[in-house]
Design brief:
- By secondary structure, this protein is mainly α.
- The chain has a domain of 105 residues.
- Helices cover 62% and strands 0% of the residues.
- The longest helix is centred in the first third of the chain and has 15 residues.
- The mean pLDDT is 93.
Amino acid sequence: MTANQIIQELKENNTISRETILEIEKHALVGQELVRYFKENKNREWALQLLRRAVEIRNEPYPKGYDIGTGTLMLAGYIVGLHQQIEDCLEIWKAKTVDFDTFCGFDIQLVVFGGVANTIAYLKQQNAEDAVKYITECDESGDFDTLDQYFNPDGMPYYI
C-alpha cells in the first residue's frame, strides 16, 4: 500500500478503513512514505482524519484496540504537527491520553510542535489544565531541550 492509495481511499470513502490503519501499523515504509508525502503536500484535514481514526481504533475494547500501537498514533500526531496549526495540539494531547500505555509511550514532544510557550498559552485558553500542568513539568525537567532535533525537517522520526 502506498501513500497515494491511502489518500485516494479517504477521497473515495470519506474515511480510512481499519485495514488501512493496520497496514500503516505493520509496515514502517508506508509510514515513512506518508511523512515524506505530507512534508511536500499539506492536507491537514486528511492528517486529522488519520489521527482521529487511529484513536478511534485504539479506543476499541481490548484486545482489538491494541491492534494500534503507540508508534502509529505518534506517526499520525507527527503528520498533524507538520501542518503547524496550534489548535491541533489538543487533538494530539487526546491521542497521548487515550490510555495508560499511550500516556507513557506517546512522546510529549509531539504535543508542543508549535513551541512550548505557544502551546501552553493556547491550552490555558482552552482550560486544558491537565495538559498545561504536564507540559510545564516536562519543560522544567528538560524534555523539550532538543525540540529542534526532534522536528528536524530533513530527518525521519525514530518511531517510524
